Q: What sequence folds into this?
């Protein structure tokens, strides 16, 4: 197997090398004597034998993987620098054997004890940097704003339905009478709720939806006990008030009260009498109210004394 050598162009020192060593860094090597860097491929030649010298440790480390040896072939008539002594070759051979021995041994990971010692020696700042990544301020601010916006959206999705339910309950409470009048089923639920809430469901009081289509006074036949009375002006005169009440609303209405006024020929007020709903209705009729789109004939008996009236008027109102 042929042996190769290269020569430093700066100091003339020659070194024994292999082709693999030259190809390792594209031929760039450092001279162990003058420490200059040169291209070993440009000055490579075939080595035929001769005395050798050991290169420095730095040259071996940086350029020849600790395996290249330094020697002086001493060939030309022009004088060349002869480097090395016998003990240097021995040291180089021992170093080469040690390096080869280390390279031949398989690499083993550090033991837990060694890792623990290294962790103790590592600066605390490096450990903090390896575990905690500092984030820029604008990133933190953006994330906080995103979390805040998400929380607000949750409150909106929860709060809006609750507000709508509260508004619906308030409207149902305010217009409970109208709701009960328009919807019998809803009226039952509202009345059941009012039993617990100690409230009352009342029928609507829309007087403009009620009217008297007709009214009249009829004289009733006198009772037999009244015969033989001294005079007509002193005896009670039985009368009957007949009125036709109409409800033009689409809902049931509270029954109104009636007011009767009697006047003489001069228009002077003779009698004013008020009839409340209890005077012409049963308790059940009073509770259910006047049905929607209905009419009712009301008959109210009364007794008049004194001068017979020349005219009368009937009106409705809510007390």
A:
């Amino acid at each position: 197997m042929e042996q190769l050598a290269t020569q430093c162009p700066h100091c003339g020192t020659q070194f024994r090398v292999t082709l693999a060593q030259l190809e390792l860094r594209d031929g760039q090597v450092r001279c162990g004597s003058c420490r200059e860097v040169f291209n070993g491929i440009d000055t490579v030649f075939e080595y035929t034998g001769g005395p050798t010298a050991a290169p420095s440790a730095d040259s071996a480390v940086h350029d020849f993987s600790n395996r290249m040896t330094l020697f002086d072939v001493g060939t030309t008539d022009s004088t060349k620098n002869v480097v090395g002594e016998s003990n240097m070759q021995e040291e180089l051979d021992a170093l080469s054997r040690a390096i080869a021995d280390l390279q031949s041994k398989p690499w083993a990971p550090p033991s837990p004890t060694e890792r623990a010692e290294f962790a103790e020696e590592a600066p605390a700042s490096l450990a903090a940097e390896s575990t905690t990544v500092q984030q820029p301020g604008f990133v933190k601010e953006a994330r906080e704003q995103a979390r805040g916006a998400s929380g607000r959206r949750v409150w909106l999705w929860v709060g809006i339905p609750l507000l709508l339910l509260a508004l619906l309950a308030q409207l149902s409470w305010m217009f409970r009478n109208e709701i009960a009048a328009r919807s019998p089923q809803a009226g039952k639920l509202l009345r059941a709720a009012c039993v617990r809430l100690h409230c009352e469901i009342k029928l609507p009081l829309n007087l403009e939806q009620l009217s008297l289509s007709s009214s009249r006074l009829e004289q009733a036949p006198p009772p037999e006990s009244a015969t033989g009375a001294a005079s007509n002006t002193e005896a009670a005169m039985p009368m009957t008030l007949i009125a036709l009440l109409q409800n033009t609303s689409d809902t049931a209405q509270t029954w109104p009260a009636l007011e009767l006024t009697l006047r003489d020929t001069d228009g002077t007020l003779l009698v004013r009498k008020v009839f409340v709903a209890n005077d012409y209705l049963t308790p059940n009729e009073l509770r259910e109210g006047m049905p929607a789109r209905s009419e009712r004939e009301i008959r109210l008996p009364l007794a008049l004394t004194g001068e017979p009236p020349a005219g009368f008027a009937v009106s409705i109102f809510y007390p």
